[in-house]
Sequence to fold (728 residues):
Amino acid sequence: MNVLKHLLFTVFMGGLLLSADGLVQAQGTEVSALIEKAEAAGIEQSAVAELLRRAQSQEMSNQQLQQILESALDLSDQNLPGQVAVDKALEGLSKGVPADRIIPAVHNIGEGMRQAAEIVDPWMKRSEVQQMMGRTGQSMSQNIFRGEMIRAASKSFVQKIPASQINRIFNEIGSEEILSTRSAGDVLAAVSVLSDLPTSSSQPEISASLIIRALRGGFDADKLQQLPSAMKMGQQRSQLPASSVIEGAAQQMEKGTPAKQVLQNLFNGNIGGGPPGNIPPGLERRPDRGNNNNNPGNNNRGGNNGPNG
Amino acid sequence: MRQVPLILGLFLLITSAGFSQQGQTILSLDSRVGYSTNSYLNPFLGEWDSTMEAGYNFTSLLGQSFWYGNGHSLSLTGGVIYEPFFDEQLSTWKGGIGLLDYNYRLANKLSIGVEGGSSFMQNQYSRTFFWVQPKITWFLTPFTLVRTKLGSSFRNYRNYGEVDELSDRLDLYSLEFETWPTYRWRVTAGIFGGMDILPDIQKGFTTQASAGYHFRNGASITLAGYVQQYQFQQAVTESSGGTNTIPPAGEGATTTTADHTNRIIRLKLESTLPVSKRFALFADVGAMRFLDNNAEKNLDDFNVSGGVRFSIEPKLNSGAPAITPEWDKDSDQQEIHITFSGEGRLYLVGSFNNWNKDGIPLTEQSENTYTTQLSLKMGAYEYKVLRVRGDSEEWLEFSDEVYTVSDGFDSENAMILVE
Fold:
């Protein structure tokens, strides 16, 4: 009876192995086909080759590799930058992220880009945008600009910022007033930082409003990129709500304070005149205030240590 | 004096325990010289003695650590103080101070907290203060607040004249107002006093108002005015003026029916000028008039002082420090500079090299400064910096000043935009 059991088990496992091998082979064929398609779709060969190499060395299954390549191809088929999906997978593998966490990240980016394209594409056709792109000295090609704008806007969708707010910011930065004076890089940076401002998830309209004011106030791409970290720092140092920090920064922008100074004030926790927090620089609480004036350490309740004392 | 090492120890323990990862620690050496005609106007001292007319030095070595996060903020300050006089008949004051300030934001417009501290000063006699004050702050607007504090203060004097030791407790209140009508101007006002005499406020209070202007370079100038009033019945002892004298009146203090109303009116002009990241100059001028309804003559005193402050920000973290990459960019090339003082080799890894960890080594251009050059096409690129030590690899964190984006894997990438 035992012999029969062993025999049956061996036959069963052998069958399983044969079918699995067939599956692997089938998947391998499909992956090869996808790789060819990816290269034909303009995704960098070196990136795809690197993806294959890392997938093998980190034991990513063919099925998972297939999912990544399919995501990239889906994006390319929709005239979206499929390279982004491959890049994200490469990043995850480089950082040692398990494959089952890489796939959702790649899908999220793809979904975000699809939603972003619905806003970016009609926006790109606006005459003001076309004029900006045609302006002398504009270094970014229209195709590259579109791809980068889609990537930048997709971050906002990934962070669940309502489409209406993203639409609003595109409408406002698409005005002639802004586009006639700003470069494509500035506009790209403005869209890119939207999702990174501290109010973007809870009060996206405040973030959108700040970015518009920053563009009007002369913030270039580099300064705009510093805005999210400056805002976070300002909020932490001042211990004010994010909306107050934004209001303070916006006040400074509207009063013509140079962008560099606005950022420095934020980094120092000096929020547009708001009450400063316990800011160490310069030691706000100076030692000579330790035992004088209103400090209870003096026990000076009404000048009790007068000359009669 | 025994409290000072305790305060410093606590301060260092807390800062080295990791608070500085979400905060800041600063050490400052503050030294000034001045001249005053009443020791009440001396920095920190605040002991009334209008005969103490002398030049002085005031030197303090203080450490302050500030931690914040999730609506909480905590500031700890501690250090030592040294105040010699340029008069051989006057002896030097020495001592230490420790301060604590904690705040928690309950809601957008409301925060609660507590302030506390202790100080010890020693001359021919010694003086110890300890105080704790819970507080509530209400933000009327983002730029206007009202704060109230209620708390207790304890004081102890030893070897004061013929008295070996005296101690007492005072319960104090304060109501403060602060507003920034424009970005440059800061206006404050407040009233302070003892709880026991609050029902009849004429018996004792201090009011304060100030207006300060803050320049773009960090310099500031502030004019502050104070009116203090206190009433008491005529004192019996020669050395103490009333029920609230410092030191507290001991046995033998009696009162008569004569009522005194004393007022101190004081004006002070303070200015600060940062001359570099580490050095700041400051100068103060103050004047004071003392009025007594039973005295024929008013007393006038003044104080002038000026000095320099040297501040450093020590690194207390034992782990890898956060980095702040700086880019020099033109249309063809981009050069990154990173200041890093740890061990190991650094590599730049990002979307520009397929996130290849063997990618772009950063070379140590000068001591602790690493650099490399890239020739990137137009576009936005995400990147990180990898530290390799032997067989171990570590992604370095970016400082709060660096623009970072979520990488979708619970971490952050920095970003460079090439136009």
Summary: Residues 44-129 of chain A form one domain.
